[in-house]
């Protein structure tokens, strides 16, 4: 098998994005555009992978991690100049080099491999991936000769009116004989409207030298579309979302309304789980089998076990067990663990707490910095008072404890196994196992006194 190399161009700032974030780092379905490209080329056996960085180089390097060698381009003088930065790594080596752009998040490994295989099968010096665009404005046009062979590529700003009418465009993805690539890169000039060194000019030079250059056409234009502004970013997001949703449905997940379901690229969902409309699943969320999620749920970086229900609720950076019921209108904040068969009901907020198996907080409860055992019942309106204005403290509640409605558990405090806290109590001291705790003042009724308050309207 031939030796293969990959170069990703990611040095541009992307001024049309009008953003402080560098273009290739803008996310599509929860993942930076550049990361999508890296993940796809990671499916192909490349000997070397290089990313050409420039603007925001440190941030871009952090995105690349150890998946490729980052090469710094001090001045951005065009695509040919960018590729030339890799000569220290590649010049003189035999093999095939693929050049891609870091702002094409929809490109797939299958398409890249098809281009490489086509070039190598044709024994060509280079192959360019082309597509037919409904609106080719902004793209380089593919000019063919009378026999239909590639003649040249003309950039949009340099094209004549006749050439601008051509709808076959250069996607900016190429496969080269590596030695010829670096031999002819040195000959590229910048006599054009932009004063830049264009990589497509290498193809023209190869053709002039009677080297074979071929065009490989893909039927999937949207896959090769570059992202240069926010409108194109939204279009890429929509296409990627449709692709992701389709893949989940093919794996046995039910999406009752795919057009209104939003799932990030790195999420995993088990078979027979049903995702209802308005649901947003982001980050590295993992959902088990047989769950019911939504409608209008938002899950971020969480793990959810099998046969759990999450209805109209928010879960962030937390772990949810099997057969758990959450919602409607619950909020599970980061670093929470909800064990099997627990119930977190409507208008319950859980923050950095562990809820034991079978325990229930059915409604209108705040559990912050709490550790609950198994089969604990938290009454309506109960609050773990975890903050004294400076520090956070924990509340511990033992197995089988019953906490009555409208109780305040002032941390740090422990409630023993099987203990009972009477409704309306404010608990400031620990409660032993099986004890009854009552902490409320005695009721006093003053007969006829309400008449003296004179608060009634229209007496």
UniProtKB/TrEMBL annotation:
Membrane spanning stretches: none
NCBIfam families in the cross-refs: glmU (TIGR01173), PRK14354.1 (NF010934)
Region Pyrophosphorylase, annotated ranges: 1-230
Name recorded for this polypeptide: Bifunctional protein GlmU
Lineage: Bacteria, Bacillati, Bacillota, Bacilli, Bacillales
Region (Linker): 231-251
Gene assigned in the entry: glmU
UniProt xrefs under Gene3D superfamilies: Hexapeptide repeat proteins (2.160.10.10), Spore Coat Polysaccharide Biosynthesis Protein SpsA, Chain A (3.90.550.10)
Annotated cofactor note: Binds 1 Mg(2+) ion per subunit.
Residues that, per the record, bind acetyl-CoA: 386-387, 423, 440
Swiss-Prot/TrEMBL catalytic activity: N-acetyl-alpha-D-glucosamine 1-phosphate + UTP + H(+) = UDP-N-acetyl-alpha-D-glucosamine + diphosphate; alpha-D-glucosamine 1-phosphate + acetyl-CoA = N-acetyl-alpha-D-glucosamine 1-phosphate + CoA + H(+)
Organism: Sporolactobacillus spathodeae
Protein role: Catalyzes the last two sequential reactions in the de novo biosynthetic pathway for UDP-N-acetylglucosamine (UDP-GlcNAc). The C-terminal domain catalyzes the transfer of acetyl group from acetyl coenzyme A to glucosamine-1-phosphate (GlcN-1-P) to produce N-acetylglucosamine-1-phosphate (GlcNAc-1-P), which is converted into UDP-GlcNAc by the transfer of uridine 5-monophosphate (from uridine 5-triphosphate), a reaction catalyzed by the N-terminal domain.
Residue intervals of the MobA-like NTP transferase domain: 6-157
Active site, renumbered: 363 (proton acceptor)
Pathway: Bacterial outer membrane biogenesis; LPS lipid A biosynthesis; Nucleotide-sugar biosynthesis; UDP-N-acetyl-alpha-D-glucosamine biosynthesis; UDP-N-acetyl-alpha-D-glucosamine from N-acetyl-alpha-D-glucosamine 1-phosphate: step 1/1; Nucleotide-sugar biosynthesis; UDP-N-acetyl-alpha-D-glucosamine biosynthesis; N-acetyl-alpha-D-glucosamine 1-phosphate from alpha-D-glucosamine 6-phosphate (route II): step 2/2
Residue ranges constituting the Mannose-1-phosphate guanyltransferase C-terminal domain according to the UniProt record: 265-353
Subunit: Homotrimer.
Cofactor dependency: Mg(2+)
Keywords on record: Acyltransferase, Cell shape, Cell wall biogenesis/degradation, Cytoplasm, Magnesium, Metal-binding, Multifunctional enzyme, Nucleotidyltransferase, Peptidoglycan synthesis, Repeat, Transferase
PROSITE patterns: HEXAPEP_TRANSFERASES
One Pfam family, short name: NTP_transf_3
């Amino acid at each position: 098998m031939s030796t293969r190399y990959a170069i990703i161009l990611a040095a541009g700032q992307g001024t049309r994005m009008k953003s402080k974030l560098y273009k290739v780092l803008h996310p599509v379905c929860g993942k930076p555009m550049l990361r999508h490209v890296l993940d796809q080329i990671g499916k192909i056996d490349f000997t070397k992978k290089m990313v050409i960085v420039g603007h925001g180089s440190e941030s871009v390097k952090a995105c690349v991690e150890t998946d490729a060698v980052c090469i710094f381009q001090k001045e951005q003088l065009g695509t040919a100049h960018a590729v030339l930065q890799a000569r220290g790594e590649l010049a003189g080596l035999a093999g095939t080099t693929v050049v891609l752009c870091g702002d094409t998040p929809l490109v797939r490994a299958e398409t890249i491999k098809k281009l490489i295989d086509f070039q190598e099968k044709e024994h060509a010096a280079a192959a360019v991936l082309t597509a037919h665009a409904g609106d080719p404005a902004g793209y380089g046009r593919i000019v063919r000769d009378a026999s239909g062979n590639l003649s040249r590529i003309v950039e949009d700003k340099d094209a004549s009116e006749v050439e601008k009418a051509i709808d076959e465009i250069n996607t900016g993805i190429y496969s080269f004989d590596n030695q010829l690539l670096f031999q002819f890169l040195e000959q590229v000039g910048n006599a054009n409207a932009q004063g830049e060194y264009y990589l497509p000019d290498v193809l023209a030079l190869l053709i002039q030298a009677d080297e074979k250059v071929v065009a490989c056409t893909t039927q999937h234009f949207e896959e090769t579309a570059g992202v240069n502004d926010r409108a194109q970013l939204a279009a890429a997001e929509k296409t990627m979302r449709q692709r992701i949703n389709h893949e989940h449905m093919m794996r046995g997940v039910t999406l009752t309304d795919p057009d209104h379901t939003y799932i990030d690229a790195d999420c995993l969902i088990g078979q027979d789980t049903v995702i209802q409309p308005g649901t947003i699943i982001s980050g590295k969320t993992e959902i088990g089998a047989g769950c019911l999620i939504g409608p209008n749920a938002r899950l971020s970086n969480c793990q959810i076990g099998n046969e759990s229900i999450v209805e109209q609720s928010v879960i962030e950076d937390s772990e949810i067990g099997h057969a758990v019921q959450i919602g409607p209108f619950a909020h599970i904040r980061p670093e929470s663990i909800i064990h099997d068969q627990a119930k977190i009901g409507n208008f319950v907020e859980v923050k950095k707490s562990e809820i034991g198996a079978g325990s229930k907080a059915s409604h209108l409860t705040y559990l912050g910095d709490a550790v609950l055992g198994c089969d604990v019942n938290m009454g309506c309106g109960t609050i773990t008072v975890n903050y004294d204005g400076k520090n956070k403290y924990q509340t511990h509640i033992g197995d089988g404890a019953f906490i009555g409605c409208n109780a305040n558990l002032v941390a740090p405090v422990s409630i023993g196994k099987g203990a009972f806290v009477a409704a309306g109590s404010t608990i400031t001291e620990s409660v032993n196992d099986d004890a009854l705790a009552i902490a409320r003042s005695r009721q006093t009724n003053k007969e006829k006194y309400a008449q003296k308050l004179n608060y009634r309207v229209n007496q």
